[in-house]
Amino acid sequence: MKYKKKVVLSIFIILISFLQNSCGSKRISKKIIVASSGKIESLDPARANTLKAIQLISSLGDTLYELNSDGELIPQLASGMPVISKDRLQITINLRKNVFFHDGTAFNSNAMKFTFDRFKRIGTMNYILGNKIKSIETPSEYSVIINLNKPSSSLNGLLTSVNLTPISPTFYKQYSDKFLNEKFVGTGKYVLTSFSNEVQSIDPYSNYWGEKPLNNGVNFVGYSNSSSLFGALKSKQIDVLLSNSIDDSQRKSLNNLSKNKQFNEGNSPFTELSFISLKTSSYPLNNLNLRLALAKSLNRKLISEKVSYGLRKPSRSIIPPILKKDNQELWPKYDYLEARRLLQKENYCNGNILKIPLTYRSNVPADKLIALTWQEEIKSSLKDCIDIELNGVESTTVYKNLSLGIYTAVLLDWTGAYSDPEAYLTPLLSCNEIVDGICKKGESVYSGSFWGSNKVESLFLESEKISGIKRLEKLVEIEKIAARSIPYIPIWISSQKAWSQNKISKPIFNGAGIISLSDLELINE
């Protein structure tokens, strides 16, 4: 079956290439081919949790608001700014009129309520709503009232999240309590015309309420590995390459080729965090000294230079620098001598070696290189103390198994669903049920650390009641607590990159690291 799928994908790509390049330079199909590695498992906004899926949903649907580069709300499906009651428990939002879903039905307050209520029931990204929403009222056809359980200062996440993209109540009627993975009916600039895990095709929506796309549609193609993706761009089989999971040596090569005007390079802000999740709920990493020793054995600068050629920034924080007022590095720094001392304190190094199974995502090239570099560094400085055992697992399997607690240590990455420190702290650190410092139910279970702190939970609640600098200080305090307990080891922070052929306009990213497919344009034709 895998062989047949590869054959079908190859035939599809060859067909597109023929249509776009037949008769020499003459181009019959004016659809733009955008490619990246990996698959899309679901286009259901209540389930989607990968950057690739979020990328596509962002083109097929609209959110109530977007954030500009200064973090300010810009109305999209909302017709104006939200009106917040004096007690801050009600948010009133007026909606755009004359907006239609791709199935021809009207977007209105009932559609908004349907979307929110559905996400509350089945949404997997629970931290976006948490226990914030008490109910949704629809006082008129184009007005919604969001009733909160308590005042919240993190409304940006609620109002700009792609996972809360409005969907058609008519089309999703039979899927109000279950996922619809292979279809999508929203209000966005594009309509989905075909879907498979490897290839998705989207066309401009003729009845779109706002500015129309600058192109005649996009074929979104997933390649199985980095080398074939890199080769497809260089041989002009594809128009645009997204950097997700591409090998860093190839990323460096494309960076150099772009400087020589052979490609156009687009960059997002540094928003993608790579880190190691440590299972804190059982032996051996329920021991804080051992977690601290591991953190101090990680040479970020060496990893950045050897793996990414310095293109990714070493980071001792889980909050991107652009979301903080300063660049505090809170997590333990590299110090292998101190790591040895901590290990000896726990009776290791004297003929007793700490064995740590490290799982990396086998389809993410950088993961394996990070793991190998760390393993080699430990062999050179701590081989009598630590033994890192590597295990490569396909990313889809990793994500499915994280909450089962089968990984002692696992390499992951995360990009916040919205531009706020909370979008990085809550998914990694929040917990709904804590027993003796172990999270039994909550986001830290889904991220594989099983770490919980009652103090952190109280600080999250306090941060909801304040705003501005005081709120940011509370959130930084949360990170400080986590940095002392080390449920994770941050490695580096990356920017999303995309490269286009010279006949295609330069790729443009928004502040959340999402490329604007509608701004891709054929030029010089």
Q: What features would you describe in this structure?
A:
The chain is of the alpha+beta class. It contains 15 helices and 19 strands. Strands 1, 8, 9, 10, 11, 12, 13, 14, 15, 16 and 19 form an 11-stranded mixed beta sheet that branches. The protein has a 4-stranded antiparallel beta sheet with strand order 4-5-7-6, with helices on one face. A two-stranded antiparallel sheet has the order 2-3. Helix 7 (288-296) runs antiparallel to helix 9 (336-345) and helix 14 packs antiparallel against helix 15. The longest helix is centred in the N-terminal third of the chain and has 20 residues, at 2-21. It is globular, with a radius of gyration of 24 Å. It starts with a helix and ends in a 25-residue tail after the last strand.
- The overall average pLDDT, rounded, is 89
Strand content: 15-25%
Share of residues in helices: 25-40%
Structural class: alpha+beta
Q: In terms of quaternary structure, what is this? A: single chain
Shape: globular
Rg of Cα set: 24 Å
Q: Mind summarizing the main beta sheet?
A: 11 strands, mixed
Low-pLDDT segments, ≥5 res: 1-11, 13-28
- DSSP summary: helix tally: 15
